[in-house]
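Before relying on records like the one below, remember that each one covers exactly one chain. Contacts with other chains, cofactors or solvent are not represented anywhere in the record.
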Amino acid sequence: MEFKSLKNIETSFKQIRIIAIVFVILCAGITGYAVWNSFSFAEAQRQKIYVLDEGKSLMLALSQDLSQNRPVEAREHIKRFHELFFTLSPDKSAIESNINRALFLVDKSAFRYYQDMQEKGYYNRIVSGNINQIIQIDSVACNFDAYPYKTTVYAKQMIIRASNVTERSLVTRCDLRNSVRSDNNPHGFIMERFEIIENRDLRTLER
């Protein structure tokens, strides 16, 4: 009878030991999951943009996922460059101002186009001929599967003279790389190896 009691006590100790081990493992698992989840949450918060509502409390801020917003910013960056670089008015100071702002968004490849057109007297003819040049972006094709991102822009230029309006097809391409955000480059991209692959007249309409 005494042997049976001792055996029951030993069995009870084994059960208590097993329960204690299982309890410790469960606690460790829950603690590990909580730590991992906390780090994941913190990383997700770092991937968001926070915008103050007129400098007021962040409780009213708008947040957006950077990875989702990046393609939109890339297309907007490219559109902005083309609007500044190719929209011209018969005002020398306005042309220079727009070109200088555009060159913050691109490497020296676009500056070479600017120098070439300047040497050929293109901007002087715009001013002397009282010509307005307006660009209309049809589409911006970006390949985000490979870095740097390959982009192609399809657009139309309207060359507006006193006597007629010339519609011109414009196709450009470039590589797009991430860069540092600044007041002059708010989207944080830089265009590289910019080139004009098509720039031809489509039709001329008399006014």
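Residues 56-63 have pLDDT under 50 and may be disordered.
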